Amino acid sequence: MTTLFALSGILPLFLGAIPLGFLAIYLVLRWRDRDEPRRDPELGLKAALLSIRAYALLLALGGATAVVDWGLRAGFGVRRDSDEVGAGLGFLLAGTLVTLLGTWSLRRTNAAEFPRAARTFRGYLGAISGLIGASALAVALSALLTDQRGALLSVPWAVEIVWTAATLALLEPMTRPRADHLLPPPEKAAGTP
Fold it and tell me: C-alpha dihedral over 58, 61, 67, 68, to 10 degrees?
């Protein structure tokens, strides 16, 4: 039940700090949108959908962490309770389904025309998963380099595997140049200097 307790231990973070971050992002986006020549008429809807999708993705990552931890411990020959993998799969499946539904819903908005909200939420999620992954790496390496090499070591490595992969997946598209910078300059009309 340690994985289930770990998942329930981060519940206050999911219910408190992360949704406050979503609210802060919305307020910053709304503030920046007021100075734009073309305001985003669906910013509130997109912020709500992006918040729900981001929250669901974080729950899915928590479930994936529990499943990977269960697999690592089983690989080390540690007997595991099947309730732990069941709880992890429950988080993983529910989070994945809501993430997919949120992605489908966002495609029905003007997100392609006004991508700032999606990029901002993606950056926030990348920062959260990067911080979690870096913290897990520090715990795993410190446990590895000290005398704490028991089965508990699988938890930080499971977190490291899942959350670092998520960080790379979330931030990779943001490192590519935006398409509008790659377009050739518009053709000049004949006879204009």
Answer: -140
Q: Which structure tokens are listed for 30?
A: 């709304």
Alpha carbons 34 and 41: distance in angstroms, whole number: 11
Centre a 10 Å sphere on the Cβ of residue 64 and count the other Cβ atoms it contains. 23
Task: Say how far apart CA 80 and CA 154 lie, in whole Å.
Answer: 12
- Residues across the chain: 193
Q: How far apart are CA 60 and CA 8, in angstroms?
A: 14
174-190: average pLDDT: 55
pTM, rounded to two decimals: 0.74
* Amino acid at site 124: Y
Q: What is the distance between the alpha carbons of residues 39 and 147, in angstroms, rounded to a whole number?
A: 58
Residues 120-159 have pLDDT tens digits of 888 888 888 888 888 777 777 777 777 665 545 677 778 7
Residue 122, CA distances (Å) to 51, 102, 141, 153 in order: 10, 14, 28, 30
- Provide the CB-side half-sphere exposure for 92 (13 A, CA): 14
| Residue found by looking up tokens 């709304």 in the block | 30
Inter-residue contact 55 to 19 (CB < 8 Å): yes
**Is residue 56 packed enough to be buried (19+ CB in 10 Å), middle (13-18) or exposed (0-12)?**
buried
